[in-house]
Structure formats: structure tokens, C-alpha cells
Amino acid sequence: MAYLALYRKYRPKTFDQIVGQKAIVQALKNQVRYGQIGHAYLFCGTRGTGKTSTAKVFARAVNCLHPVDGNPCNECELCRESESGFNLIEIDAASNNSVDDIRTLREEVQYTPSKGKYKVYIIDEVHMLSASAFNALLKTLEEPPEHVIFILATTDPQKLLPTIVSRCQRYNFKRITTDEIKDHLQEVCQKENIQATDSALHYIAALSDGGMRDALSLLDQCHSYYMDEDITLPKVQDVLGAVDDSIYTDMTQGLADSNVRGLLVSVEKAFDDGRDAQQFIDGWIRYLRNALVIKTLKDRAAGLVEVEASELERIRQQADGIDTGLLTAWIEELAKLSGELKTASEKRILIEVTLIKMLEGPAAMGPGMDQAAGGAAASDIATSLSSSASESELASERAAMRKVGQLERRLTLLEKKTAGDDYQQRPEQAGAAVESDAGQTPAGDSPKTIPDKEKEQPADGNLNLEGAEDLTQDPDFEKVQSAWPQILDSLEKAEPNLKGLSYMELEPGPGKGVLTLASDKDIFIRLLQKDDRLAAVSNAIADMTGLRYRLVLRSIAQKEKKPVSAQEIQAKSHMKLTVED
Length: 581
Description:
This protein is α/β, with parallel strands linked by helices. Helix content is 51%, strand content 9%. The protein contains 24 helices and eleven strands. The strands form three sheets. A five-stranded parallel beta sheet has the order 2-3-4-1-5, with helices on one face. A four-stranded mixed beta sheet has the order 7-11-10-9. The chain has a two-stranded antiparallel sheet with strand order 6-8. Helix 17 packs across helix 18. It starts with 5 loop residues before the first helix and ends in an 8-residue tail after the last helix. Mean pLDDT is 74; it is low at 362-392, 420-470 and 558-562.
């Protein structure tokens, strides 16, 4: 006999063999047991959750000559004949979706079965029917002959007409849990004499995303490759082109530590091993999601993350050192990357550039850069950092790029004042400025808006700073600015929640005794507004320089940005930078 795939060989024959749909199974068994059979059913759910298998079991049960507790006996004449399509007609709506196909169906249902009580029509992927075909089916579906049962199966129920749905008993098939899939895979392995470790089966179950058919297909694939060997987790990952979760741990730590080289080396390893780029990024998103849930819910997260106990503790320890806002921002950026990878030709380059942007951020590369210039600068930084060998060199590179952004900001201010323009901040475009009196406000006080007595607010809503003293040449500010890289390093080591400072620019004023932290990423501004984080920054500045400043947060509007070339940045920064056209 020809080889039969595992998902076909172990398709359920009775209701009791259906995994993960207890409520639906009980309802259908009761209908068979008490003879209360409906005329139309709608089975909804994602692929591999048992819709078609349940429909076939139900079709045998309603015609079985000797049902056992609502289950078909699978031994009588009608049960055996149903396997060959007797009294059971399957229709693929994806390829039989015209009105003519439905008209043919309407003619066929008029004929009574030669044996048994019912003719059962299973219409798979029913949402693929055309609008005219749905309309042709309506009357027959509402009042079919007494010997006909319709079972409609779909993965996309929202595409069905409400008039169709209202004529059916609807059953929603849920995703099968990882533990339920794993237990079923263990039973299959015992029957097939397949040796597989628990971690390998758990990984296959998690990768199947709630679909039993997918899980059995993956197990079949792994068994075919390692026919006479034990199936272990590394072997499964090798066959499926998947990535060990340990690489996600390393890469997440690389993001937290701003380790560009480590991230790029991990990406290189994944591609050298032949890993699928889409699967690689999607797996990392799931890892970060688990870390976010574990960090948020702590001990209550056990039922919401599908990881083993040892991995749960490892993820918890790592998540404790990363701010919730950063985890959220990383997930959002990687989700965008996942969508872009579907149409990208150079997937590895896209991944590397995205990771560098996540670390450095547009603010760190200079506020005058647009997206195109930012991408080019990111590539230059990547080339430079990839050849670096020590953490001190990496820190020096990051400090240099922060210095470029600060110099560009100061030059922009000077150009405006030279031209006689007012330096204005537009709250309606950039968001209202926020400040915290780090020196006078008690710890725990929330940030407040800038008082009117310090800044006069005109009728148009813009902050008018005309006539304000030019603080860019203030010796005190120069002292803070020169010490800013060391201040950042000490803060990031002492307070992991302050890593967002690397994405912000330090500006003088407005006014004496005030410093502004500016960014075009609102997420980092919100992070610094929490608790007494601005007070911690002010204290670090005072410890390093002996100067006490009040801190103000400002969101940089996109309209403030203007494109500048890499050559202009080099000229303004007075630094030696590699410029490639």
C-alpha cells in the first residue's frame, strides 16, 4: 500500500478523537444521540483546527446503523461506504463557485438517498462562492428536503452574507493549544515508533500556530529526514530552517546594550545557516511579545506564553532589565520590517539597516537628515562598526554621531538668528513642551507645562522666543555638552530605563539654567516623563559638572527637518567622516 501522510492517516474517525474542540463535539454528539439533527451547519475557524474532519465524522454518525453514544461505529455498511463518498458529497467552493454549480446542486438534492437517512453536502471554503451563487443557494439552504444536511466550512466567515449565516447553526473552531497538540503528537509517535524529544515536539506544536494538520505535516517532514534517528530540537530547527530561541535572547540583549556588531554577527549567522528571513523576524517578534507579557504580568503570565518553564525564567530575567516602552517600540519596528520583507529583494540588507536604525535612531544621526540620508548614514555607520573590535570603540562611534547631531542643531539655530528669524517652537505641530524642575520639584511630582511668566504665549499658540539670549556660546553649556557622552554612559549603566537618552539631543535653554532634551520619537519623550527620571538626569549632570539645570522635553516636528548631504554634515562637524557617493 502506498505511504499515507500522517495528517491523513490520523484523521479523526470518531468525535472522541477530535482534539481541542470539546464544546462543539459535545453539542454534535447530543444531536445525534437524541435525533435532533439540524438542516444546515456553519463551521468557522483557522486552517487545521478540525472543521472538515468534524463534518465527515458527523456525516457518518447521522447515517450510522449502530451509533455508540453519538459516535459512528465505523463498522456498519453505511459507515464503510461513506469513506468512498456514499451519501457524503464534498464540494470545493474555491473551484465550483459559479451560479451554474449551485443550480446543479439544487437539482441533485431533490433525489433521496438509496440507503440511509441523509445526504450530507460539505461545502468547503464556502466564502469563495460568488454573490449570485450565494443568492441561488439561499432558498435551498433555508428549506432543504428532509433528507439533506448542509455543512458549510470556511476560514473567513465575515465574507458570508448575513442571510446565509442566519440560516445555519454556527460553530466556531478555536485554535488548538500547544499542549494539546504536543500530547497528540506524542501519541502518534508511539504508534509510529518515532523517537522524538519533548522539546522537539513542543517546538513543532508551537510552530504550527494552533493547527493540528500543520503539526502532523511538520512531524512527518522531520521524520522523513531523520528516519532512523531520534528527532531533537536542533534537528527540527535544521530541517525547518528555523532559529534557536537562544539567538533571539542574544539579539534582544544586543539591542538593550546597543551592541551593533553583535547584532550584525547574529544576522550573518542566521543567513549563513540558511534560515528563512521572514520566519526569523516573525520568531523574534514572538519572543519579544513573550518578554513583554512576562514583564507586564510577572507570575500571572504562565498561561499566556507558550514557552517551557526553563525558557520562561530566562526570558523573565532578561525582560526585567529592559523598559516596557522599549520592548513595545522594538515590536512595532520589527512588525513593520516583517511586512516589508514580503516584497524586499535584499532581505538581509533591509534587516541590518532596520536594526541599526533601531539602535541609533534618527535623532542620533542628526535632525537635518531625511529618511534617505539617514539610511545612507546608517550604512556608513554599519560599515564602520562592523570592523570595530572593542566596546570602547563602539562607544566612541556613538558619541561622535551624537556630537554631529548636536552641532547640526546649534548651526541651525545660529543660521536662523543671523537671518533675523524668530526661533519658534510650534506646539500644535511638535507637541507641547514639558519640563520638570529637577532641582526644586520633589521626587515623584509629574512634569508640568512651562509657566507663562517664563515664556509668553502669543495668540497663535506658538512659543515666542524673540529676543531670548543666545545660549549656544554659554561656557556652562559647553561644559555640560563636552561631558554629555560620559554622563550618558554612567546613566545607562546605572539606570537601564534611561537608555532612551541615546536617542535624544541636548540643546541649550530656553533661558538660563534650563536644558532641553529633544527627540522626534514620542516614545522616548514619554519614557522620560515617568517617575523621577528627569531628576536622575539632572543629578547626573550636577555630579559630573557641578552645575544644576532644569530639564525640558521637546518633540521635534517633521517640518523642522531639512535634507542635508553627508558632505555638509562633515563640513559642519569638523570631524573626519568617510563619505561615499
